[in-house]
Amino acid sequence: MSTTTADTTVTAEDLYTIGAEIHDAKAPLDSPLDKMWGQRKFTAKLVNPSNRRKLNIIIVGTGLAGGAAAASLGEMGYHVLNFCYQDSPRRAHSIAAQGGINAAKNYRNDGDSTYRLFYDTVKGGDYRARETNVYRLAEVSANIIDQCVAQGVPFAREYGGLLDNRSFGGVQVSRTFYARGQTGQQLLIGAYQALERQVAAGTVSMYARHEMQDVIVADGRARGIVVRDMVTGEIQTYYADVVILATGGYGNVFFLSTNAMGSNTTAIWRAHKRGAFFGNPCYTQIHPTCIPQHGEYQSKLTLMSESLRNDGRIWVPKRVEDCSKDPREIPEADRDYYLERIYPSFGNLVPRDIASRQAKYMCDEGRGVGPEVEEVDQATGQKVLRRRGVYLDFADALNRLGHKAVEAKYGNLFDMYQQITGENPYETPMRIYPAVHYTMGGLWVDYDLETTIPGLFCAGEANFADQGANRLGASALMQGLADGYFVLPETIPNYLAGMLRAEPIDDSHPAAQEAIAAVKERTQKLLTIQGSRSVDSFHKELGRIMWEYCGMERREEGLVRAIGLIRDLRADFWTDVKVTGEGVGLNQALERAARLADFLELGELMCIDALQRRESCGGHFRAESKTPDGEALRHDDQFLYVSAWEAAGEDGKPTLHKEPLVYKNIELKTRSYK
Amino acid sequence: MNVTLRVWRQKDARSAGKMVEYKLSDIDEHMSFLEMLDVLNEQLTAADEEPVAFDSDCREGICGMCGVVINGVPHGRGQTTYQTTTCQLHMREFHDGDVIDIEPWRATSFPVIKDLVVDRTAFDRIIAAGGFITAPTGTAPEAHATPVAKADADRAFDAATCIGCGACVAACPNGSAMLFTAAKVTHLGSLPQGQPERRSRALSMVAQHDAEGFGNCTNIGECSAVCPKGIPLEVISRLNRDLYGALTTVRGAELG
Fold it and tell me: How many Å apart are CA B222 and CA B172, to the nearest integer?
């Protein structure tokens, strides 16, 4: 632990400055909502097929957004250079999404429509997303399903051969398409196969085990990237006419999350430092149904699909003294099915943020279950032992549907739970607890998905655009594929049409030289500190700070304290980290250190963003802003805006640019799931 | 528990490697196997030695990035009754005092990059050779236009669960990737959307498989026995049937 103490005399307003408002200039706001995307597509400039092969596109990331975009743009005839840090594009973390993908097909004849999907998504995002982007998302959702089926994605089907649907957290229609509990895997493999087809066709050049270190902004435009070849250690440059970042979320700032070990913020953070605004960094989603932490050595948390909430019932014992008992011996009368009690109309299907927070409250009250874990009480600063888990019980479903039907629906999830915990969920209730899962924040983009750096686009979880302050279940896959298959292939040509006469650039350009030198210097510095602490020990400490002060419940004084702690930790990191090995060749300690260096900066911005937003909305819950019965209280009069952050300059203070959110089609309401 | 590890250390592709012994104490039985290696790496770092390089990403058994040979068995199933990836193997499967051998996948077509990390890009090239359905973005018909019998959809799904980890190759005495190749041929060939390219797909993928230096299948079945997703050996029969059909009917022009 750091020996210096945080300065608690700082106030929020000392930490940032307020800049000019920012607006999205690309959505044709004079068109009606349902004509807007059509209008934008029509006015977008096109590129003649014979000119396309002369234009190069860099795409970083090969998940649903990046992989789908690379396949689609390659197919259109552009030359795509596609990068990923994994050994193969098929590993991108989209693969781990379990539950499903939403689409407004209304196959169930239960009143679904494009408008309803749009409405549910904006409402689910707690009215902090743009109407324009979300409507487009709902509009293209049906095409995504068509596209995936044509590619051979084996979605679940009914006996009649048609596609099956299920309902998912936060909505009352069945619009979620799924492939057992492996929907993300199947969608990603579909995109990956389309991508490999383009690799074979020569339109896509694939660079696996290449990690982006910086973006090259030359003469005001993104023209290339600096990467580290992770096998040789060589620092290389690649140039193009446009750069797309589709590098996923930054949940690993919390160390423990459901993200993959390698998921990181470096690409978007480096872009931010080069001038791309960062939107709503504090909006993180804590997923309610994860397997609880079991020890200090733990490297990641595992999510259990929230589709489990369709048939599982969540409860804790009514009495603290029952918490150490075998759950099967606790009679019905002594169980508190708290979500069904507090939210009778949505019950176990309330949105993720609500389900997560209520689980935290139950455990804070001492009614959690499972092993006791040591933690620091935020109010008293004392170390306490608490049980961090609630039951997710399938006994009713097993009685009602039978073992076989439950196995058919959730078999792989039950197996996974048993492999990890050694307990059999068919016999004893699962234990679950919330974990960091998704980040709604990301690079600020306009309707075309272009950042504030011309020629730098951002898609999927890496951008901030569609999910608002909270994401509904099964809409991450939808957004990734919408951006990759249907949005970027329309907006990128519009940008590229203006690049046909652009001068090619190479390493001799001053901007390139500066970026290369900066990457080499940072890499060399990490290797030469040779301090006493491992990279992971710093990462775990950052994670504890973030989880405690910028997790499910945030407070003014806690956030200020966290910022001090992060600054101290960052200073320690740059003087005391130990990175073994050398710059040449594969060096995983170096890779992790470089990622952590950026998380240590991002964590501070997340806390500053959480500080300035003195309201509760979606996944962002400020303890000071709640209704008398403890629910989140928004302040639409003060905070109906996107926070778009410009990177700190010489004074070390980031600048907040507000993008006012305008709701013309949806009336703002208080979310009520009671 | 206390365990002794014997780990394959190899500086890079060109250097010779060797097994190196390490002792670990106070290992929690709830740790995953890779978390145990994390603990080893923290110890090595503290002792100014270079940590053991190994691949892993999702650590929930779905991305296919991890995989080492444990006591001679790819993904080292220990005594568990179900098939699993290395990241989903837990130390409760081992005993106090165990000696555990840890090696990389061993196959000519998967050259070692460093320690336990190997190059599996040959798999990507097999997929690129034909492991897809040609369906350009935007051309898709309405999803319900073609019903798919549930049995076909389920068979396709079972084969599509392959995570491309490469354990099948590491287990095979011939270093064959036939299970991997056949899983994709079965996935796509079981669906109506995959019929037009069914035979050319089998031919092109097998040609690439052979070109990558993978061995042939002699029906040993080790591949399926270690497959973390339980891909059945039967998919290879399906591949052979498609291949036979293709050899007798596909014209040269279709092979491109």
Answer: 6
The string of pLDDT tens digits covering residues A200-258 is: 999 999 999 999 999 999 999 999 999 999 999 999 999 999 999 999 999 999 999 99
What's the CATH fold of domain B120-255?
Fumarate Reductase Iron-sulfur Protein; Chain B, domain 2 (1.10.1060)
Q: Can you name the CATH fold of B3-113?
A: Ubiquitin-like (UB roll) (3.10.20)
- Prediction ipTM score: 0.97
Question: What total of structural domains would you count in chain A?
Answer: 2
Q: Nearest to residue A362, comparing CAs of A388, A332, A331, A330?
A: A388
- Does residue A337 belong to any structural domain of this protein? yes
Catalytic residue of the set A130, A136, A270, A352: A352
Residue A271 inside a domain? The answer is no
Residues of B in contact with A185 (CB under 8 A): 62, 161, 163
Q: Where are the alpha helices (DSSP H) in chain B?
A: 33-46, 121-130, 150-160, 167-171, 178-189, 198-211, 222-226, 234-249, 252-255
One-letter amino acid of B67: G
Side chain identity at residue B23, one-letter code: K
Taking CA atoms, what residue in A is nearest to B48?
A: A580
Tokens of A365: 């009250």
Instruction: Report if residue A296 sits inside a domain.
Output: yes
SS (H, E, C) B105-125: CCCCCCCEEECCEECCHHHHH
Q: What is the CATH number of the domain that holds A622?
A: 1.20.58.100
> In Å, how far are A342, A362, A368, A426 from A334, measured between CA atoms?
16, 15, 14, 21
Question: Active-site residue A501, yes or no?
Answer: no
Contacts of B20 (CB under 8 A, 6+ apart): B6, B7, B8, B9
Q: Is B121 an 8 Å CB contact of chain A?
A: yes
- Boundaries of every domain in chain B: 3-113, 120-255
Q: How far apart are CA A114 and CA B52, in angstroms?
A: 51
CB < 8 Å to B49, chain A: 580
**Site from B57, B142, B185 to mutate, A interface, most A CB atoms within 10 angstroms:** B57
CA-wise closest residue to B28 among A258, A294, A389: A294
Residue A440 reports pLDDT greater than 50: yes
Domain shared by A291 and A425, yes or no: yes
- Residue A529 near residue A578 (C-beta atoms within 8 A): yes
pTM above 0.90, yes or no: yes
Between the alpha carbon of residue A171 and those of residues A57, A117, A342, A472, the distances in Å are 38, 9, 17, 9
Together in a domain, A431 and A519: no
B216 inside 8 A of chain A by CB: no
pLDDT at A3 over 60: no
Type of residue found at B41: N
Residue of chain A whose Cα is closest to the Cα of B10: A586
- Residue A521: which residues within 8 A CB-CB, separation 6 or more? none
Q: Note whether B48 contacts A196, CB cutoff 8 Å.
A: no
Range of the domain at A541: 511-639
CA distances from A462 to A245, A465, A504, B99, B175 (A): 7, 9, 28, 44, 39
Given a contact cutoff of 8 angstroms between Cβ atoms, the answer to whether A367 and A389 are in contact is no
